[in-house]
Amino acid sequence: MPTIYAYEVIPRLPEKLSALLDIAYNLWWTWNHDAIALFRRIARDVWEDVSHNPVLLLGRVSQSRLEEIAADEGFIAHLHRVHGNLQTYLTAKTWRERRYGDAGNNLIAYFSMEFGLSESLPVYSGGLGVLAGDTLKSASDLGLPLVGVGLAYQQGYFRQYLNIDGWQQESYPTNDFFNLPIKPVYNEDGTRLKAPIWFPHRTVMLDVWRVQVGRVPLFLLDANCQENDPADRKITDTLYGGDQEMRIQQEVVLGIGGIRALDAMNLRPTVCHMNEGHSAFLTLERIRQLREKSGLSFHEAREAIGSANVFTTHTPVPAGFDIFSPALMDKYMRDYPGRLDLSKKAFLSLGRKDADNPDEGFNMALLAGRHASYINAVSKLHAHVTREMWKDQWRDVPRNEVPIHHVTNGVHLRGWISREMADFFDTYLGSQWDSNPEEKNVWARLAQAPEEELWRVHLRRRERMVGFVRRRLREQLQRRGANRAELDEALETLSPNALTIGFARRFATYKRATLLLRDLDRLRQLLLNEERPVQIVFAGKAHPKDVNGKELIKQLYHFGREPNVRRRFVFVEDYDMNVARYLVQGADIWLNTPRRPLEASGTSGMKAAANGCLNVSVLDGWWDEGYTPEVGWAIGRGEDYADFTVQDNVEASALYNLLEHEIIPLFYDHSADRLPRRWIQMMKRSIQQLAPEFNTHRMVQEYAAKFYQPASKRFQELSANDFARARELAAWRNRIAKNWKDVKILGVQFPPSRVYQVGDRIAVQVEVSLGGLEPRDVAVEIYAGPLNETGEIVRGQTVKMDDGQPGDAGARRYHSEVVCQASGRHGFSVRILPTHHDLVTNFDLGIITWA
To answer: What is the pLDDT of residue 92?
Structure first.
């Protein structure tokens, strides 16, 4: 092979158009409708052909077209306006500066396996990535000092198409990074910046790419470097592709390589946020680096680093966690036990439930959770499920006190609503709906907005969605070799005036995409009603290895091919962010049918709600919090079923009943002016109640207040004076572990009466033995609350006892009172927990002694 000297070619823009590159390479344009309109204005057809990629657009249009728009005074004025708005955005004072000032300057690194920022940057697969992308956008809007870290996938996630039998097929187009809105990261001397990581018997080098997301940079790691072996160059080929060995390679690259890449750029985060457990190896690399710089022991460094890590789990079932075999861990993490001064057994125990089981795999979620000060689920219901899943980590702690918090997911509103809706909000809500979307009083102004204007906005978007679906359907049929009659019929599919139901998400079996097919005769009656027609649009991808998910798509496809329903029942192929926008903006109803409680959060319904689309959903994930009868409909009442067949039949029937008796009649109930005014009022209430709550501005602010700021402060305190407090805390933990076996509750005394009245106080005295510990090392508490049918305390409340007094034979006596606050059957117990001023909670050590 000859030597190839690579170089980069960029569009030759006329001087007047030079600002286009500034805009194209900052993904701020993805949530600025005026910027999107600017690129569309250059060449509308090309803009669609290049999947809304402005860099590729500028490379595709002819030089004559570039010269033409450079001479167009209207276009130049538009360009100057957009560029000026970008500069204003980048320099304006932000929420973070107003809220935290200099105290909020500590760098936060947000690690995620995928980032969904735009369909033009296909390094995402679904909800996890889109949430990560929306998080970066809101962090930018709020001015948070945050950087993202992910992987630069050469092929990204697959493109979907269906064969003639409706079976999902996958293709993997290659991403040309030099024609994407990303840039290589260079050293000061002009060479490509590299980050090295250790692999078995070799070093793997990583290139780094920068994606600018408003004020926030996202760094993507790329193993496709000339220095690497051909096999290693494929590590970052495909998102969620390959076997377990490929997965551990990718997670080593993300976690360890991510920290080293930041270090190579002199970016040293105080807080690292792990979006799922994929990046959990970063905790070990941070500890390794700190040990080598400071001379701390593993346990001392772990105290300091753990104080500054945040872990968000999205998984509602244990099977969703990444678990690697001991053999894979030994192969790819062989050097780490020695570098951390741990035995191999102690090292593997960091990710095991049973440290003494040599066959147990290494659980990445356990690694993340054990090295983070804050763990959170992504909805209130998911937190309940997660506490139950993780109960063995806090064996004797009541479920409601397991220290797993929740921060309910949100969506970046500006990025998901249509331009017409944004203009409508600007007119009737003012600018604060965008800058402060979490302010409920701003959304209250919507009550005074004209109903007919909101409906006109919605009709326009439904017509646009119908036009989009018709074009996509025709393209799908052409690929399958359809005849002329079928192609012509595609252009008459769907009606711009019919009640439109949207269902678009990942085709996992628990999401039950085919629930509507349980009674086909009943479904046909809904679809074929000429007076009150209903139409349904489906979209979504099954994982390439998920045969059951593919079977669901095939079932929908076959039903949609029936001659009498094909115009009102459509599956849109190759679901991505572009398809999602058309659907959430144009549908009347957003349908969600997961098997409760397996939907950790879900965000597509939030996007639909912000656009005035009404939700119909099982009470799972976010809808368990968001639902009220004024804003949408619930399928069932949150029941749990042991028999899934019974559950599917009951909930399918409930869905048909809602459609037949409530939803369809309400939609077609028009007033004298031919407007569905009661429906429009419900749209308004849905936006008013849901938009201020389920957005990523609120979510990111919550992360900042609950986790980022406390974690930064705690790290600074533990690291001060050569990590004096971290050393002291590690020594204290060791002393507690050695002496806790001698901590005992010797006796509990209280009045003998078993009947009290509301308002009475029960005096409690407890005698304890602390063994070799000091009174300041422990908290003695009463845990009181109502009793359930099995005699267990539920909804327990903690009553702290006094500081105690010396008792007989070295014992110590503690006193307090239980207040009888409500009637019914109640009870209490007494417990002792280790306590220290540098713990986040008294449950951090996972040990507790009960009476």
So the answer is: 96
Over residues 584-614, the pLDDT tens digits come to 999 999 999 999 999 999 999 999 999 999 9
Alpha helix positions (H), 127-228: 127-142
**3-class SS letters over 274-332:** EECHHHCHHHHHHHHHHHHHHCCCHHHHHHHHHCCEEEECCCCCHHHCCEECHHHHHHH
Q: Going by CATH, does the domain composed of 108-156+184-334+365-409+709-714 fall within 3.40.50.2000?
A: yes
CATH architecture of 439-694: 3-Layer(aba) Sandwich (3.40)
- b/e sequence 247-282, b meaning 16+ C-beta within 10 Å: bbbbbbbbbbbbbbbbebbeeebbbbbbbbbbbbbb
The span from the CA of 199 to the CA of 18, in Å, is 43
What is the tens place of the pLDDT at every residue in 548-592?
A: 999 999 999 999 999 999 999 999 999 999 999 999 999 999 999
Place of tokens 């390439």: 544
Q: Is the pLDDT of residue 148 over 90?
A: yes
**Calpha distance 191→197 (Å, rounded):** 19
- Residue 111 is inside which H or E element, if any? strand 108-112
Distance CA 542, CA 528 (A): 29
Strand ranges for 455-597 from DSSP E: 499-504, 534-539, 569-572, 589-592
Distances (CA, A) of 731 to 76, 300, 311, 373, 735: 66, 8, 25, 18, 6
Q: According to the model, what pLDDT value does residue 713 have?
A: 95
pLDDT in tens, 612-653: 999 999 999 999 999 999 999 999 999 989 999 999 999 999
CATH 1.10.3470 fits 743-850, yes or no: no
Distance separating the N- and C-terminal Cα atoms of the chain: 77
Instruction: In whole angstroms, give the CA distance from residue 106 to residue 714.
Output: 12
Q: Which two tokens stand for residue 805?
A: 């007094």
